Amino acid sequence: MLRIRAGSVHPVTAPPIEDGAVLVDDRGTIAAVGPNSLVPTPPEARALDFPQARLLPGLVNTHTHLELTHLAGKDAEREFAGWIRTLRALKDATSPEEFSHSAEQGVRDAWAAGVTCVADTGSTGTPLEALARLGGRGIYYQEVFGPDPTKCGASMAELEQAVARLRRFASSHLSLGISPHAPYTVSEPLYRAVAEFARRDALPLAVHLAESRDETALVRDGAGSFAEALRARGIPVTPRGCSPVEYLLRLGVLEHATGWLCIHCVQVDERDIDILRQAGVGLAHCPRSNRAHGHGTAPLAAFRRAGLRVGLGTDSVVSVGDSSLWAEAAAAGLDGEDALRMLTLEGARALGREDEIGSLEVGKQADLVVFPSTILHRPPPPSTALLTLVAGRVVHG
Fold first, then answer.
1. Which fold has domain 2-57+361-396?
2. Is it the case that residue 238 has pLDDT exceeding 90?
3. Which end of the chain has fewer CB within 10 Å, C or N?
């Protein structure tokens, strides 16, 4: 057992508790939370005391690319399509061992930043392997690519092989999902096949959607840099006359999509927001990445008014340089308890995990983090957590 006392405890679902404490049982769940004087102190419990700090639920990062940790600062291309091409070349030059080390470092960096649950997308599987090896919590979405409709079968075979290989790493703390990458890298038949695979095998699904203006130009008008690149490869481009969100609805991808995750959603209007709401998807809002690539600003306030489940994500360190969710909250215009709620309970809701994590309540998983007392008032450096627990186990500090 473990008993942690702090200058203030922030349950999120209840007011902050000055001089509070949390008791963690041997199953890794929260046994008690409240004023220090009222939380039991079993003789067998290890006691930790942080009188000048804040005890919070672990943070939830709703969109990461942990396998790219080693590429921070390596892609200086400004134009988005060019940035993607450079990133692809950098990945092609990376060995399996480098990916494995990079993913492990990414997990450890997340813990040092107070993040206890990640929703990661990748093509190598190494983030899921690293999370399983280190005892982390999260969802890993195996990416699939294939803009050429004639090669849908090959892409699906590759995806099914990867899922079969990675299933053994899934657990009560770790989920395996799939991710048809984005409208400019996935053909119409491949989208449909992946969505059907997800429903048939009850797999979570995540998709990059409505991120850039060039993506919208591709889908709506068959124009822009993505369209030009596809035509240069001999891949036909058909204008759809609609937004990327409506395109996925027409394909059937956003039907029966409750629990799925849409990433970015910058280039959206009110109709798109209503489609997303009716689909029951969660959203991953990545304001720093959107800004770094010149995509614009996603309408967070409109998402929240519509009742969408929205969490914050850091995207990759290739885009933003670090894994600080507090910096994402600041970029989104959030601070104080509002930022805390978005980084914890709302992130858990976006991933469909609010019954397990996201707040300090008896019976929930003991995913906890201790931060300096200034944490709610100014964005700290990334590696700021004094103590991080996943399921009651100390993983940092």
1. Urease, subunit C; domain 1 (2.30.40)
2. yes
3. C
